[in-house]
Amino acid sequence: MQKSILIASLSIIISSVFFVINDAIINYLSVNQIQFYHFVFYGSPAYLIVPLFLYFKGNFKEHLSSSNYYILLIRSLLFAPMPFLTFIALKNISLPEFTTLNMAAPLFASIYAYFFLNEKFNRYLYFSLFIGFLGVIFIVQPGFENFNIYFLVVLFGVILITSTTTIVNKFHNISTALGFFIYGGLIIHILSFLLFIYDPIKVDLNVFILITIASILINIAIFLATFAFKKAQKHYSSVFCLVYLQIVWSSIIGYFIFNEYLNTLALLGALFIIISGLISIPGQFYQLKDKSSE
What is the tens place of the pLDDT at every residue in 229-275? Predict the structure, then answer.
């Protein structure tokens, strides 16, 4: 089990870097005429190469077979709005704000883990939740002049994406990691192809290269995250804390490339969220200890 936790944790760390780079490229593209369905359409080869590879390898049916297709369909539906929410949010808030608000995901993950995955909590995880919640409040700043309604759009996206990872963890045995990946992107790619036919757009070579890079990275990141939460199984909430590293990568890219930064209260909130993640690490070890004693 410790080896599984290590592999899952490493996968989350790598995916956190790729997620932020993808968001940074979307942040750059969102100020132009690029819509989410243009982005998904031009980036679709990065997604389609996986089923094509499996087909020519001869084990396509193996990865597409499942004991519960309804669960895979529900997860695909939950994931479908994510590109739209990402584009509309990054048009209206900064990259560091977007990424930091996405770090509310471990809070929702812990709640889901408690109610749906029957994970045992300890004092470290409870305290981590409390500190993380304070951090989100400081960032959103409801009632303050810096409040932005699009903060709530991001939080809605967080609820959706956390729901998809919870499904992978709870129903990890109904499909392979590649199967979850393929089915997860099915609906959004079909929808984007239809919208592109209705509203096509030509992009120059530089934009095409950026979209291609972002698409490759986001698809790898999604697969790694799916693989990690499938691997983590009974330690979903504690492994999730590693996504807090995205705050670091996002703050660096936001400051040096986009000249975007968090205000004082938001910085304090980001600090609280990072502390929340650090506090949850001992909680992970206690979960392992409790599991081994069963």
Answer: 676 555 555 566 666 667 767 777 777 777 766 677 777 877 887 77
As a whole number of angstroms, the distance between CA 47 and CA 44 comes to 5
Q: Which residues contact 105 (CB under 8 A, 6 or more apart)?
A: 158, 161, 162, 240, 243
* Ranges 25-29, 185-189, 193-197: which has the least confidence: 25-29
State the Cα–Cα distance between residues 139 and 39, nearest whole angstrom.
Answer: 28
Q: Using the Cα atoms of residue 247, residue 251, residue 257 and residue 261 in order, give the sign of their dihedral.
A: positive
Tokens of 44: 């679709």
For 50-109, how does the pLDDT look when each residue is reduced to its tens digit (9 = 90+)?
999 999 988 888 888 998 999 999 999 999 999 999 999 988 888 877 877 887 777 777
Q: 243: Cβ–Cβ under 8 A, 6 or more apart, which residues?
A: 12, 16, 102, 103, 105, 106, 277
Neighbours of 9 (CB within 10 A): 18
Per the structure, the count of domains in the chain is 1
What are the C-alpha distances in Å from 165 to residues 79, 227, 271? 10, 10, 25
- Alpha-carbon distance of 29 to 174, in angstroms, equals 37
Q: Which domain holds residue 279?
A: 2-293
**Number of residues that this document lists for the chain:** 294
Query: Could you tell me which residues come within 8 angstroms of residue 128 by beta carbon, excluding any fewer than 6 positions away?
Result: 106, 110, 241, 276, 277, 279, 280, 283
